[in-house]
Design goal:
With 676 residues, this protein is an alpha/beta fold. The strands form eleven sheets. It has an eight-stranded parallel β-barrel. The chain has 16 helices and 36 strands. Pfam families: FGE-sulfatase.
Length: 676
């Protein structure tokens, strides 16, 4: 049980304004850099401001909206001319799919919905079925190295190449209609250097795996070398930058990550998408439990969402209401992509006075063939039912695409319902109905939606160890059983602790609220055990192999060593198998900690982390607490796993990869026996 929290540290070393520290004000509100930009209605906007704006704020007074729309048009024309923008990359047939890539899932490669740990295989079909309540994805980012990179000298490319069968996993996603992105960690400079520069290595890796694009972690934009290598690759790779991509880079980055974009009360316009309608942005606020603001901004702009329900091992799942909203949006966006991308887009148009007074707003998308779509959002906490639009047409059939209702024919827009904190879409069609319309209406009508905005909490359950059955071997350290209050020290990372998210509804956490040393006092009960005074050695482990003929279920990275050093390159199952052979089990992290404070407890050199019997899973992420620290330490970035010798109280939450990727020269183990 958590009793107290102590924070220490520190300094803010970030120079990028998007990395400005959040400690000087309330972290639950946007930083100034996150706020929407005011676009002057009657004078030019300074390019240094306009070219990097996140969102152009809408005026509060609806009477100013026509002038605002005119200012938006002038701004875009001036920016295109000044930058000599041609948009030719968006004409490439090989990568034209980006403009309709509305929903992308950011997924830890070892997410237990995707990786079947029991059978040691990936289950793409199972993952898509288990996440289908989000409306299906158009793309998936397979996040792989962070937050475990740095446990040894492996680099980010190794953490992809070490995964058996990964190309087949990617091919299966693609066969099911999804585009697959790798992620690039430019901060990875302190591990083993690959044969080529990063740009060449990424291009080769993409060709080996047959992927479609690259997520640029912590980067707004790639440099010229990276852009050239990826765009000219076979297959060509698209680039998606994190956060606000400047106008000058929209020419060669077809997507961007719209992270922490605050909006105005009346929904504003996303600058990058307004500059180039074919440029896709993906909204996300990773620590939010209410995604209605992001969803509404995306729907009013005709852009997409990044679905990130597990942030580097921390469950931040979506509520039922927001998943229902996303499903509503995606049905409309996928059916009407041509209208969203190429139709005449008029932001904040045609909403009735009654609707605006209730916090309901509309954007209009129209084509030359007589189809007009209005996307509507409800900022309020109550459903709105009534005349939402002032538009009038002749000979028009009206449809509610989000409820699946046929609204009849007439010159005036009929009344509709826009759910609280939700969205709606009204389509007016002159002439024959589109061929896709009947199936969309049926699917919308069959989806009953949801209003429940409760956070779907998960609890990580400890995997209980098998009791030991034998007597201690060799020299041991006695741990007396009973209740204790133990300090746990750690570095606050995005991985969190045993339970819950380290940040809730917060905007971007940065030092000193990120990577700061922490201490908690935990009330625990430890068993009476004898803990081996030293780690299992290579020689001892070799004796186990010779005596039993043991072979692991997966032999990837299986390379037992020799001599008296600590046995490493063993995964958790290997360590448990050895412990069972000698009649013991692994010590829990608390048993290890108490034993480590006692006389006679020793560490082999070089120091390596120790596996413990502290395996947890919440059904999505599996992790183990490692103890002891190691002599290895990857330097140059705070994003690496903690290295170096560590006090016995220090615990490292290590997200558990599979298929042997968790075998490391930096992790060994020791055995414990219960006292009877």
């Amino acid at each position: 049980m958590r009793r107290s929290t102590i924070s220490t540290r520190t300094t803010d070393r970030h120079a990028d304004p998007d990395e400005a520290a959040t400690n000087r004000f309330d972290p639950l509100v946007p930083r100034p850099i996150d706020l929407p930009t005011t676009l002057p209605l009657d004078e030019p906007l300074e390019p240094g401001t306009g070219d990097i704006a996140k969102v152009f704020a809408a005026p509060d007074d609806p009477a100013d909206w026509p002038a605002w729309r005119a200012a938006l048009a002038r701004w875009r024309e001036e920016a295109h001319a000044r930058l000599r923008y041609d948009g030719v990359i968006y004409d490439r047939s090989a990568t034209g799919w980006t403009s309709s890539c509305y929903s992308v899932a950011l997924v830890w490669l070892w997410d237990e919905r995707l990786f079947d740990r029991e059978h040691g295989r990936f289950d793409v079909a199972g993952f898509l079925a288990r996440t289908s309540d989000h409306g299906g994805f158009d793309g998936v980012v397979l996040w792989h190295a962070y937050p475990v990179i740095g446990i040894d000298d492996r680099n980010q490319f190794d953490f992809y190449r070490d995964v058996p069968g990964l190309r087949d996993v990617i091919a299966e996603f693609q066969s099911r209609g999804l585009r697959v992105f790798l992620d690039y960690n430019p901060w990875d400079t302190g591990t083993r250097r690959p044969p080529h520069d990063d740009a060449t290595e990424l291009a080769q890796l993409a060709s080996e795996l047959g992927t479609d694009g690259m997520f640029l972690d912590t980067m707004k934009e790639g440099d010229s070398r990276l852009v050239s290598a990826l765009l000219g690759n076979d297959p060509p790779q698209v680039l998606e930058g994190e956060s606000r991509l400047p106008n000058a880079r929209i020419v060669d980055h077809q997507l961007s990550w719209a992270q922490w974009f605050a909006d105005s009360t009346a929904p504003g316009v996303q600058r990058a998408h307004w500059f180039e309608r074919r440029h896709m942005t993906h909204q996300t606020r990773r620590w939010n439990r209410d995604h209605s603001d992001e969803l509404q901004s995306a729907f009013m702009n005709g852009t997409g969402m990044l679905v990130w329900d597990t942030v580097f091992g921390v469950w931040v799942g979506w509520n039922e209401r927001d998943k229902a909203t996303l499903r509503r949006m995606l049905r409309v966006q996928r059916a009407l992509t041509t209208l969203f991308v190429h139709g005449e887009w008029t932001p904040l148009a045609d909403a009735s006075d009654e609707a605006i007074a209730a916090g309901v707003y509309a954007s209009r998308f129209a084509d030359q063939r007589g189809s007009t779509l209005w996307t509507l959002v409800n900022r309020g906490r109550a459903d709105y039912t009534g005349p939402a639009l002032t538009a009038t047409t002749g000979g028009t059939a009206w449809f509610d695409l989000t409820s699946g209702a046929r609204l009849g024919h007439g010159t005036a827009a009929p009344a509709v319902t826009v759910p609280a904190r939700g969205v709606a879409a009204v389509l007016a069609v002159e002439g024959p109905e589109p061929s896709w319309l009947a199936s969309l209406l049926a699917a919308a009508a069959a989806d009953r939606g949801a209003t429940d905005a409760t956070f779907p909490a998960r609890t990580a359950q400890r995997v209980r160890p098998r009791p030991s059955r034998g007597r201690p071997r060799g020299v041991t350290v006695r741990v007396e059983g009973g209740p204790r209050t133990l300090p746990m020290t750690y570095r606050r990372r995005e991985t969190g602790g045993y339970q819950g998210a380290p940040y809730v509804e917060e905007w971007k956490p940065l030092p000193p609220r990120l990577h700061d040393p922490r201490q908690e006092l935990l009330d625990v009960t430890v068993a009476a055990v004898e803990v081996a005074a030293h780690e299992v050695t290579n020689a001892e482990f070799a004796g186990f192999l010779a005596a039993t003929g043991y072979r692991p279920t997966c032999e990837n990275r299986w390379s037992p060593g020799t001599g008296d050093g600590a046995a490493t390159m063993v995964d958790l199952a290997d360590a448990r198998a050895y412990a069972e052979w000698v009649g013991g089990r692994l010590p829990t992290e608390f048993e290890w900690q108490v034993a480590a404070e006692a006389p006679g407890f020793t560490r082999a050199t070089p120091l390596v982390w120790n596996w413990t019997e502290s395996e947890h899973t919440d059904g999505i992420t599996r992790f183990v607490m490692l103890k002891g620290g190691s002599d290895h330490e990857s330097t140059g970035s705070d994003w690496y796993v903690d290295g170096g010798p560590r006090d016995p109280s220090f615990s490292l939450k290590f997200l558990l990869p599979g298929l042997g990727v968790d075998r490391s020269p930096g992790i060994g183990f020791r055995v414990a026996w219960e006292v009877r």
